Every structure is written in C-alpha cells, then in structure tokens.
C-alpha cells in the first residue's frame, strides 16, 4: 500500500475548505442548508445543517466545520 505525504493531505484539505467557503457565499447566519458531507434532506425539504457565524453544524451526521468566511 502506498501512503501519501502529509503535505499533500494538508493541501487537499485546504482546497476542499476553499470550495466549501465558495459554496456557502450568500448564505445567511441561522439558515438551514443541505449538508455537503451527508446531503441529508428532511421531510420538509430543508437541509439538516445550520450555519453559524464562523462554522456550520449538521444535525444529521454530526459534523461541525469551522469556515473562514
């Protein structure tokens, strides 16, 4: 099995967060969005992730991500 260098993993994480920040532009604080990780949509056609000032939390899969937006 081949292993990736730590710098490659960090670079991929940064690129993924840049894409996520771009996707969240124009979203207001407190808005419920579809989680970019689990993509869960409830019965009422709303997403399961809530946007906070500097992060978002998905109440379905439990992910909590800090964003620099």
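Q: What amino acid sequence fits the structure above?
A:
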């Amino acid at each position: 099995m081949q292993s990736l260098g730590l710098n490659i993993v960090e670079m991929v994480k940064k690129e993924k967060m840049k894409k996520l920040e771009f996707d969240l532009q124009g979203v207001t604080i407190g808005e419920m969005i579809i989680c970019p990780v689990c993509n869960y949509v409830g019965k009422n056609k709303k997403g399961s992730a809530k946007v906070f000032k500097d992060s978002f939390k998905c109440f379905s899969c439990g992910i909590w991500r800090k964003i620099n937006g």
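Q: And what stands out in the fold?
A: DSSP finds one helix and four strands in the chain.
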